[in-house]
Amino acid sequence: MLKKILIALAVIAIVVVGVVAMQPSEFRVVRTATIAAPAPVVFAQVNDFRKWQAWSPYERLDPAMKRIYEGAPAGTGAIYTWAGNNEVGEGRTTIIESRPSDLIRIQLEFVRPFTATNTAEFTFKPEGDRTAVTWSLAGKKNFTAKAVHLFMNMDRMVGGQFEEGLARMKSVVEAAAKQ
């Protein structure tokens, strides 16, 4: 009887390992919002990390979070390091590419609560007197991350945060445009 139980457990373990191994090795989360402002105005909100406090959904998770700004004041080479509670963790963002009113590419390095390096991008498409802003996050998944993603919907979790951030950015930019 014990032998049958051990064989059944081994089969279950092999099936679970196989299911996890067959999961995609990369992920991508994308959200877009349209803001009633020209692309250079919207671009400026993202290109300067100091402006993120007004709209980033992560800034509100820990108002006591420690922030350090290094490197360039904005654009390529700007660095933002943070350390906060368990909800925001600890990490570092670096703008690795900045093309005015077109694209901002950011290297995002998490230290805590887990280690990971991902790429975030913001693109800006003029649509008359409006701008379509797309915020995306992409990265690779190791075996452990593949297993976690079986139970955690990355697109729903992070996508919701992106939607919140883009809505706040829209409010900030459009309110400033009215003044």
What is the helical fraction, as a range of percent?
25-40%
Strand order of the largest sheet: 1-7-6-5-4-3-2
Task: Write the H/E string, N to C.
Answer: HEHEEEEEEHH
Low-pLDDT stretches: none
Give your account of this protein's structure.
- With 179 residues, the chain is an alpha+beta fold.
- 34% of the residues lie in helices and 36% in strands.
- The protein has four helices and seven strands; from the N terminus they run H-E-H-E-E-E-E-E-E-H-H.
- The chain has helices at residues 2-21, 39-47, 143-149, 154-178, and strands at 26-35, 66-71, 78-83, 90-99, 103-112, 116-127, 130-140.
- Strands 1-7-6-5-4-3-2 form a seven-stranded antiparallel sheet.
- A hairpin with a 2-residue loop joins strand 6 and strand 7 (130-140).
- The longest helix is centred in the last third of the chain and has 25 residues, at 154-178.
- The mean pLDDT is 89.
Looking at this protein, list some descriptive labels.
single chain, 179 residues, alpha+beta, 7-stranded antiparallel sheet, 4 helices, elongated
Short structural description:
With 179 residues, the protein is an alpha+beta fold.
